[in-house]
Amino acid sequence: MNNFLTSKTQVINIGLASFSPPIRSHGGTSVDLEWRPPAEGNSASGLALAQLMSDGKINAANQVALERYQAAQPILVGVGVAREELKGLGPRMLLHSGPPIAWENMCGPQKGAVLGAIVFEGWASTLLEAESLVAHGEVKLDACNHHSAVGPMAGIISPSMPVWIIENTTHGNRSYCNMNEGLGKVLRFGANGPEVIERLVWMREVLGPTVKSILQHLGPVALGPLIAQALHMGDEVHNRNAAASGLFFKKLTLAGLEILAKLDARKLKDTLAFIAANDHFFLNLSMAACKVMLEAADGVENSTMVTVMARNGVDFGIQISGLKGRWFTAPAPFVEGLFFSGYSQLDAARDLGDSAITETAGVGGFSMAASPAIVQFVGGTPADALANTRRMLQITLGQNSAFTLPALNFGGCPAGIDVRKVVDSSILPVINTGIAHKLAGIGQIGAGITHAPLSCFVKAVEALALKGVN
Amino acid sequence: MNNFLTSKTQVINIGLASFSPPIRSHGGTSVDLEWRPPAEGNSASGLALAQLMSDGKINAANQVALERYQAAQPILVGVGVAREELKGLGPRMLLHSGPPIAWENMCGPQKGAVLGAIVFEGWASTLLEAESLVAHGEVKLDACNHHSAVGPMAGIISPSMPVWIIENTTHGNRSYCNMNEGLGKVLRFGANGPEVIERLVWMREVLGPTVKSILQHLGPVALGPLIAQALHMGDEVHNRNAAASGLFFKKLTLAGLEILAKLDARKLKDTLAFIAANDHFFLNLSMAACKVMLEAADGVENSTMVTVMARNGVDFGIQISGLKGRWFTAPAPFVEGLFFSGYSQLDAARDLGDSAITETAGVGGFSMAASPAIVQFVGGTPADALANTRRMLQITLGQNSAFTLPALNFGGCPAGIDVRKVVDSSILPVINTGIAHKLAGIGQIGAGITHAPLSCFVKAVEALALKGVN
User: Fold this and answer.
1) Nearest CA to CA, how far is B206 from chain A (Å)?
2) Same domain for A137 and A7?
3) Whole-number pLDDT of residue A1
4) Based on the domain organization, do B60 and B100 belong to the same domain?
5) What residue numbers bound the domain in which B144 lies?
6) pLDDT tens per residue across span A412-444
7) Angle ∠(B229,B236,B407) on CA atoms, nearest 5
8) What does residue B55 show for φ and ψ, rounded to 5 degrees?
9) What is chain A's alpha carbon radius of gyration, rounded to the nearest angstrom?
10) How many helices (H) and strands (E) does chain B have?
11) Which of residues 223-282 of A touch B (CB under 8 A)?
């Protein structure tokens, strides 16, 4: 090739990036086209994709799904007890994050959390006994998402835990999430020592009932406007919830003081102090709000809109609206990020938790442009944060005008992931997330950024092509 | 000129912008150099500027002043009563914002606030009586800044008002500010009806003493880190204080609950509800923090660093470190902004208040890049906000690394305005501010952006040149 090169050569390179340097070294110009073959270059998947890509019925179905998501109004209506609120949660059942997984296949931190929850529930008095119970199948395990619930990281919801109850007042569906324990040695990151169990007991005995009483006085809390406000205050409501937690704290405090006479003052003080000390407190409300909005968009025939992204530390799973309830999975990726002192990538579990429901709903990593300060927690630069949001506009069906981003000149967040666009462009959904230690019993060791694996999306496209558009 | 123009003409135009179109119309290229003659093209001022511009003693003095400002630690140490805390505040004296001004020359809203404060103090029982008192010289008036104090908008501090006490623990100086009344019909915007006076009485009887008790329990509150945190949460701590107010509310609440037994529960509840309802509550703390930092930088011989920018709605005044206590004034400009429904520029008073102390300290308009959402309150776009901050880097001595801005990739805010750079570049300090109705008794009608007038800076340069560098 070099024989033909002169300083006047002008090339648009659609081949390997290594084609360009020789052209440039002869004084010519070469622009590398950023292009990758759709569907990983796999011809069967490519055929499936081509079949769906411009299908009018799919486009119409996606509009319906997106509109349902946008019309949903996530309202916090109260705090309940998991066993009383979650349909199908058996008396000796634990819910976990991500797609379904058997005990023996679980990652370290999820195992740690399962054992801790068994002790917390009093089904066993030691972690060893707990392990024997679950290994003998005497504790049932199921995915949170099968019960309209979500749980961050290990995502364990056990029957006696207090849960947030979120209702979508537009369509009437409800979602649930447990309450946030704070950072460090906590059950959701796989820690299960006595201090973890004691905190969970306090949350069940004091935090849950106190917040429940306050909410009964306060009445329904609209979470949409609260999230919108937080997005203007540097949160992306996945890995940064400082503003949203503060706004929610304010509401609880004022209502709590109004019914001071009815409450135990010590319990109120401890409850508010616990919430105030945890800038991630709102995360679990954000997740449940996103879940209820996406469940409203689920089950629209032919729709290729993603309604769930969830990880159990082994598998990453997605669901799409047009194939309700079916999981499409791939190995969970690792997370690139910043590690707490003394830890490194070698200690890290794979991507874990139902919290990617926030990205599925257009916030979290998709709204990183709203949250430049988050890069101090997850790594990268504010310019990267903006670029992440801009890139997500290429794989989404629209923008949610209820969640505007100042950095996009108040344009809505990228919302409604279209599996077709992901497969066609190979642009992967970006996720901000915490990092758990890979071993049971340790806890959080960092936070960072990861991407949903392409093959989940390829599988979903193939499944829909196989089923056919109706 | 046109006879010489061809399509190959390439011009850098240092003249009028109108030189360029003919060049371009002939296919040539012309770049307009954005340049204005220093010191408004006035030769005497230009000479004064040239004399000071590269003076080594001035540069050294400015480093000292900037370092003092940066080393200052603004700490909230308590709440007091103005007459007991502010030196030189006489028994029948009112302090006002901006440079000194006589009653008869005051703008409408400042007059309105003076009258309201006289009624509030009980020196007169009606606004009419109050006007007679002040017109007969029976109420003394002085500038807040003469008493190490600052007041937003009309800036009235009267003897019985509660005041924040801020101490700079590095250098030992103290500053003061009144407490924020909220938005709308409030004294600082010139309203003075019964509801305004009643609120001020409640602030004196309940808010001040309650917050004082809480702070006695809480101990000193470092305002620097709190401001730094707010700058990562979408505040610029002048016209947007939502995050800072929330962070401060959290601290007060937790400390208040700890001494619940000692406090009147109703008063605590009302105090916290009042603070929670006012996203601008922190403004007066931000102002006093900025004042205490800048006063630490004051009085450095030969320094051209600006230590005060303040407006009384008639005059805009600045002070510089090397000429301590001297005012350099120019007519106060109008504010371009967004008006509340039913009002327009025709109703607006001129730029008003001591709150430009925040810009003088590098926050407010200078840190607008941290606060893209503020443009919904003051006008413009997030890109303008970033451009404002970037432009201010050209007229400042350095960047304050304690107040980092995510949008500058965590670079410090532009800090320490150098009068020489303002005069040399004609780049005017940008100010975010509220807009009062021009008539007494009405209140706030909008918010927007304005710029300090160049001639204050020219006068300061001339005065220093006249005095000579020692």
Assistant:
1) 17
2) no
3) 43
4) no
5) 74-287
6) 999 999 999 999 999 999 999 999 999 998 999
7) 75
8) -70, 120
9) 23
10) 17, 18
11) 232-234, 242-243, 246-247, 249-250, 253-254, 257-258, 260, 265, 268-269, 272-273, 276
